[in-house]
Structures are given as C-alpha cells and as structure tokens.
C-alpha cells in the first residue's frame, strides 16, 4: 500500500517520503509504526544527533523514535493523512485524512493536528 521514494518536498539529507502504491480511502489505516519510547530527560542526548528531527512526543513524559515508515512522512499544513498514538499497542497509527491516489505522497501535519498552522522548528534552518 505504501513505499518510500525520493520526495520533491523533502529538503533533508535523504530526500525521502512515503507514497501510496494504490488508492487509499479516507479513514483507511495506512501504517502502524512501532515506537521506541524514552524519557524526556534523555532527549538532550538525541538532540546531538540527526534523530532529533525524526522523533515524536509520546505522552507527557516521553519522546519516541518511530520504526517502520513512521519517521519518513513529510509535513504539510494541508495533509492527506493524520496519526493517532496507540499507547496500548505502542504504535503510531497513520490514517488517510482524505482519499489518496496511487502515486501521491502521503503527508501529515507535524503539529499533530491537521488544522494547526503553528510554526515548526525546521523552518528556521538554512
């Protein structure tokens, strides 16, 4: 249902994104990304690495590295996908927010809410 390809939207070192290999219906589960959580006080160590741009808040006291394709979704203020944290399964579950066509890049809002237009950390980078 999804694959990793070169993304025209990514300005990062790896320029990757997640793309649909078939049409995906609104509300359909796209991906369940397992997490490796760690306490927030350990984040100072992660901030010294490239992983700092790829982690997610995981509840009030933890941050998480997402496995699978979880950390490869690119950002949009008009996303076609969203995610929910599934604490019982220790996954981030990505769902189609709109119908997504085969070949289309799957985008999420990094702010966590589809309609949140808050400024993001990477917008200040050169």
From TrEMBL:
Domain named SET: residues: 1-111
Pfam families the record matches: SET
InterPro entries given in the database record: H3K4_H4K5_MeTrfase, SET7_MeTrfase, SET_dom, SET_dom_sf
UniProt xrefs under Gene3D superfamilies: SET domain
Top-rank taxon: Bacteria
Signal peptide positions on this chain: none
SUPFAM superfamilies: SET domain
Name of this chain's protein: SET domain-containing protein
